[in-house]
Specification:
By secondary structure, this protein is mainly alpha-helical. The chain is 55% helix and 0% strand.
């Protein structure tokens, strides 16, 4: 399963309560669409840390990293690359 698919599945099951599908575009803002609130962002952080073995710094918890499928996937890719380097 790709990173984006894992994110979509997590969001669908934990925020949309729809295990059958994710109906937002990958660029849709989790905050603007009302999918995730501040507590939900913390759940996303835990998901990223547990699923991908990434440590998320407090300064990295911002919309540029956690506000859409594409932004979160790009953040995970950057962090994974820095760990591998």
């Amino acid at each position: 399963m790709s990173v984006k698919e894992q994110i979509r599945q997590f969001v669908a099951e934990n925020f949309l309560f729809r295990p059958d599908g994710f109906n937002l575009s990958d660029d849709a803002s989790f905050l603007d669409e009302g999918v995730v609130d501040s507590t939900g962002t913390l759940e996303l952080v835990l998901f990223v840390e547990e699923t991908f073995g990434i440590t998320v710094a407090d300064t990295e918890i911002e919309p540029e990293n956690f506000d859409s499928v594409n932004k979160l996937a790009a953040y995970i890719a950057r962090k994974s690359a820095s760990i591998a380097a």
